[in-house]
Amino acid sequence: MLACLTLQVLPGPAQVLQPFLPRVAPNGPSTSIYNINGDFTIIGNTNLTLEDYSLNFQNNYPMVYIDEDNDPQTFNSSASTLVFSNENGADPSCSRVLFAGLYWTGRSSEEMEFQVTKSGITQTLDKREVKIKAPGQADYTRIRAQNDQIWFPESYREQDGLYVGYADVTDLVQAAGAGEYWLADVALLEGTGGSIGFYGGWGMVVVYENAAMQARDVVVFDGFAYVESYLNQNNILDLQGFSAVASGPVSVKLGVMAAEGERGGTGDFFEIERGVNSGEFIRLEHELNDTFNFFNSSIYTGGNPRNPELINNTGMDLAVFELPNEGNGIIGNGQTRTRFNYASVIDTYAIFNITFSISARRTQLEAIQQFSGSNPQLDEVYQVESSEPLDFRVEIRNKGQESVTEGKLEIPIPQNVVFDEVAATWLAASGNPAEPVYDASLGPGGTLVWEMGEVAVPEDPDALLGYLEYRLLAPDNCSGPAGFQCAASFNLSGEVTGKNATTEVPFANPVIQGYGSDQTCVFTPLTEPLRFEATGESGSCEDSEDPLAIQLCNVSGDEIPVSEVVGYFPAATRFYDSYPVEAGSVEYSAENPFPKLEEAQPYVAVLDGEGDCFRPFTLSHQTMEALSTVTSSYNGAQLSCFGAADGAVVALVEGGVPPYTYQWDDPGNSTTRSVENLPAGTYTVIVTDSQDCRATGSVTLENPAALEITLDEQLSNLNPGCDPGDAASVAFEVSGGSLPVSADLIRLNDDGTEETVQTLDFGMNRNRSFDGLLSGDYLIRVSDTNACQQETAFQVTGAEPIVYTHVITPVQRCEDLESASIEILPEGDPDALSYEWSTGATTARLSDIGPGSYSVIISNESGCSQEEVFAIEAPEPPVFTIASSTEVLCGEPGLKTTFLVISEQNETGLTITWSGGEITDNGFTMSSSQPGTYTVTLTDEKGCASTEEVAVLPYALDATFTYSGPGVSTDVFIGETVSFEPQFNGNVVSFRWDFGDGNQATEMSPTHAYRQQGTYLVRLELLDGNGCTAEYTREVTILAFEVRMPDAFTPDAADGSNSHYFPVFTKVDGLEFWVFNKWGEVIFYTNDAQSAGWNGDYQGDAAPAGSYVYRVNYTAPNGGTETQSGSFLLLR
User: Fold this and answer.
1) What range(s) does the PKD domain occupy (predicted)?
2) How many CA atoms lie within 13 A of 95 on its CB side?
3) Most exposed among 102, 725, 746, 841, judged by the fewest C-beta atoms under 10 Å?
């Protein structure tokens, strides 16, 4: 009946990587629709928030863990409270959980598992695991994703690394009920996650029933749809299989879980179609979002409390809201299908849950099952004896307002219970049910099936339409298949199914025990199964004491498929990591294969059904590989020669449990580990270990390439002419065989004997030739390093070449140049050749010749001739170089220089002659300090000589100096600074100055000030680095200060000269000047040293000619005050 309910995703840019399928509890309705009086709710929260919280910041800012549980062992945690509705006055305590699905999502590390350290505590976080704590629990329970669902990308390159996990927690929530649920340690990271950012949180959808609530169809879909940003293309979800009420208002509620929606990423929307196939879609929103940013990190789930309760949940979107279905404009009466449309302009997000509820017509075909026995109950569990007959009655009523077609009752029989008999009675006037049957093929313990067909609506909804009676035999714990242990307890439940006769919408209702008996929940159906426990002694089951050990071998892939194990157990067996099977148990299936481990791992096989029959087993895997290889080696070849039968192979085994057996397919069907004396071919061995694990290996013995000789006709010359370059030769290539290769050239004599003429060792070269061949028959016989042989024959015909060598005796001495000779040495008969030299000689030897070029024409009896030119070289004179070193000797005219003769020739055969100097070491060394040019001549033992020139340089240390006063003047007065600057040649290292007034200095360029007038003799003494000295003296004149008064002046001179009277002075300061008349009156005064002086006027009139008196006061350079006075004439 699953085909009646679909959520189809039409093609679009969204990557629907995990199709959206209905999700129900393991014991949920077979239609995958909860057709109930009740509803669904969603709770959840975020476990990651902004480091600096803001309403509008997105999760690509720095993020930190939310950790509100005050538990130091958890790194992140948040809570949300499960609250049941009180619709129609319903008592929430009467609500019963039918399904609870837990989802968690996030973006963190690319790794599936990673370590995080906080406050000194290090944890390994696994994206597939979380911790949950239900109301009333003190500790967390670890939950693992069921079969690694829903989506776990391997890197950021896949869906930006957004992952979603799912686990069924129905049992946990049924037991805990309403209250605060905590979820902790989602595999998240703090920090900044790039442009996408980090986020993480959780959501839980809970489907529950309450008899006082409205009838609804509830369906939970989940999958993984990744919606990329900037595509702005639509994605359609097609939902069908519900059944809206036939009349009156239709209420529709929608739940959505999504990830990575942003508050600032506008442009994403979620729509529902108006009616059926209208093509008109209505954009949806709720109080915390808008139609143009539906996924905006908001959590809107009906006001249930959360901890913390944030507005910006940075990437987590949970929404539960009523659709605007005024006037049934979106979902109409009787409607059975609708479509959703969603897309994004900017934002990237992933949808992983859509839950849908709608006001529905409930088809209430009721089946009440009752136990007829009077056995006592302990904690609502009937206590029965082992193998006791147990009688049951199931009553059928139609309490709804809808007729039913294809009505059917199914009661699965537990594996550990024995079916005995069944009978049915139909009381209604209409209908024609079939006889009930026990179908052993349905389920592990078989199933009771009663096909009722059409069931009409009676006038009295409480009227009994029919009943089924059947008998079972209570189990003992050995009633299951061999090797299985079956619990002595069992549960009985069932399901009544069919179709609404009007809408043809399928339904599935659980078989109930009746209705609640307390006053508050009196209308609540009791859907829990009947529970039984068989008492009494039962022995140990045969073959059940030790776990079944399953050892597999050479299973391909990284994991062990369940299909490799199912053959060891009965059909419909399921496999878990532990028993009893609990919420945290891991089931192994086609989607979740066994890990491939060498060490035996414990597992449990559980018969499908109630899960009461189980068998422990261990599973291990060994890898055994046959690595057959060639062991024969003939210098790199597997066989010695082409076609030989001297190969050897061996089987190498990796893994397995020894001892091993071997079976080869060689001609002798060998059963040994190694096989010898094999020709070329492929050989296969089957290796079997002590555990009957088999591995096959093949090995190929390859023939070496056959040894072959190929004559190169283009490079060979087997018909030579007279041209010496046309001498007979044979070029050939050797292929195949094993290097190195050697070849013999064999001449076949007329008497049939063989004569080896030449032998070649090829080394690693395969192309060689034999040269200088005479006419005749030959063989080339080639042998490789493995003694494989091949030969080929050829013949040389044509003229005999001229074959000879020569010897040149060079010139012996330079004094005797005509002492050389050239001699021709023919091969064979010396009289077979004739000679014609360029000198006119006709003998084989040309003697007493000097340097030059000589040619000869050589002829043989075949009429062949050739010319050769020889060169006689003059002896080379000796070659040498000269090294030198110098030193300074004070007083010598030049640098003392030592010369060293360097020659590569034999020193004992050389004579060295110098033109001067002090000669030592047989002339190899000469020293001199006398400036000039010297020659050296080397003569070798052949009388050949070479000459070189060397020079001794002069050396002198001299010194002068210059001086100047202030500026560049050489006139220096008392007290002025005199600057001295030396001028010299040589490597001077120190200076000594004597200024002639008792003062001295050692600077290179000193200064000095004299205190007295006079002429001083200044001396400069220099010292160079060789200890030599030089001296220079010079006079320096120092001038005194001066004040001079003119004898007369003429104010009225026509040329304007001498018109003022004033002192002429040098080097004085503080000057004062007076002029007195003959009565002693001051007629002129000034203290300005720059004044022009007296112009001859007094009180505006020209003073008369005559004698006047002056007085001058001034400060001398030595600081003393001086006065000078006298008379002068004014002339007119």
Assistant:
1) 975-1038
2) 28
3) 725
Residue found by looking up tokens 């279905």 in the block = 325
From the CB of residue 379, how many other CB atoms can be counted at a distance below 10 Å? 6
The class that CATH gives domain 880-952 is mainly beta
> CA 1115, CA 113: separation in Å to the nearest integer?
103
**CATH match for 365-535 among 2.60.40.740, 2.70.50.50, 2.60.40.770, 3.40.630.30:** 2.60.40.740
The encoded tokens of residue 5 equal: 């309910």
- CATH code of the region 804-872: 2.60.40
1071, 1091 Cβ separation under 8 angstroms: no
The 10s digit of each residue's pLDDT in 736-779 is 888 888 899 999 998 889 999 899 887 777 888 988 888 789 99
Distance CA 937, CA 914 (A): 7
Question: Which segments within 764-802 are labelled E, that is strand?
Answer: 767-773, 776-783, 789-796
Do the Cβ atoms of 955 and 892 come closer than 8 Å?
yes
Kindly tell me if the per-residue pLDDT of 612 is higher than 90. Answer: no
pLDDT value for 3: 33
Alpha-carbon distance of 232 to 13, in angstroms, equals 9
Judge contact between 818 and 849, C-beta under 8 A. Answer: yes
What is the Cα–Cα distance from 677 to 648, expressed in whole angstroms? 6
Q: Return the SS3 of 541.
A: coil
Cβ atoms of 617 and 605 within 8 Å: the answer is yes
The answer for residues whose C-beta is within 8 angstroms of residue 150's C-beta and 6 or more apart is 18, 103, 164, 165, 166, 222, 223, 224, 352
Please, what is the Cα angle at 108 between 105 and 109, to 5 degrees?
130
Q: How many CB atoms lie within 10 A of CB 1098?
A: 16
Length of the chain in terms of residues written: 1132
In words, the CATH class of domain 1043-1130 is mainly beta
Sequence spans of domains, the chain: 14-25+33-359, 365-535, 548-622, 628-701, 708-792, 804-872, 880-952, 958-1039, 1043-1130
Same-fold call for 365-535 versus 804-872: yes
Which residues 6+ apart lie within 8 Å of 908 measured at CB? none
pLDDT at residue 706 above 60?
Answer: yes
- What span, in angstroms and rounded, lies between the C-alpha atoms of 901 and 907? 10
Name the strands in the sheet holding 629-630, side by side, starting at the edge strand that comes first in the sequence: 629-630, 647-650, 674-678
Grouping H, G, I as helix, E, B as strand and the rest as coil, residue 270 is strand
| pLDDT on residue 2 | 32
Assign domain 958-1039 to a CATH class. mainly beta
CA-closest candidate to residue 1122, choices 1046, 1068, 1057: 1068
pLDDT of residue 265: 64
**CB burial string 707-724: b at 16+ within 10 A, e below:** bebebeeeebbbebebeb
1075 backbone φψ class: left, alpha, beta (φ>0; ψ -120 to 50): beta
The verdict on domain 628-701 having CATH code 2.70.98 is: no
**Which residues are registered as beta bridge partners of 992?**
1021
Report the amino acid identity of residue 276: V
- CATH number belonging to the domain at 708-792, selected among 2.30.30, 2.40.128, 2.60.40, 2.40.30: 2.60.40
Q: Are 275 and 18 in contact (CB under 8 A)?
A: no
Query: What's the CA gap between 291 and 314, in Å, rounded?
Result: 19
Cis peptide, bond prior to residue 659, ω within 30 of zero: yes
CA angle 258, 260, 266 (to 5 degrees): 100
| Residue 306 to residues 85, 354, 388, 861, Cα–Cα distance (Å) | 17, 21, 52, 123
Q: What mean pLDDT is predicted for residues 428-451?
A: 92
| Structural element, H or E, at residue 151 | strand 150-151
Neighbouring residues of 746: CB distance < 8 A, sequence distance ≥ 6: 754, 755, 756, 757, 778, 779, 780, 781
Place of tokens 């003296």: 1033
